[in-house]
Design goal:
The protein is an alpha/beta fold and 126 residues long. Helix content is 41%, strand content 29%. The chain has one domain (2-125): STAS domain (Transcription Regulator spoIIAA). The chain has four helices and five strands; from the N terminus they run E-E-H-E-H-E-H-E-H.
């Protein structure tokens, strides 16, 4: 079961996902909230997720679905914290899929939370 906790930390939206990832649940969450994140950097903490059941085909279908709502955050930045090798690798694949379907959001995957937050803070400073 996928559990998502979302909170605002100043201008940052911090989403923490735990459990077995169900991409449909994640897609519904994003579709429901993406409009609220239009002017905010977004951090996804995937350190507590299990991605073993997520195939690249499912991830690609998820990415295509996200492309239909991504314009609501066009030009925004999203950092993905994925410290485990499988998490990191799958999210790098997501980055490539997002580029291929021209999602207008700048994604970057990090193995440390500090690097992810630092990258998002750079946007706030510019």
């Amino acid at each position: 079961m996928t559990e998502i906790n979302s909170r605002r930390e100043g201008t940052l939206i911090a989403n923490t996902v735990t459990g077995e990832v169900e991409l449909d649940t994640l897609a519904e969450f994003v579709e429901r909230h993406i409009g609220e994140w239009a002017d905010s950097p977004v951090l996804w903490d995937l350190s507590g997720v299990n991605l073993e059941q997520v195939s690249s085909a499912k991830l690609q279908a998820f990415t295509v679905a996200m492309a239909t709502v991504a314009d609501k955050r066009a030009g925004g930045r999203t950092a993905i914290y994925a410290p485990e090798d499988l998490q990191f690798g799958m999210m790098r694949v997501f980055e490539v899929f997002a580029e291929n379907v021209a999602i207008p959001i700048d994604f970057c995957v990090f193995k440390t939370l500090e690097e992810a937050r630092s990258w998002l803070a750079q946007e706030a400073e510019s």
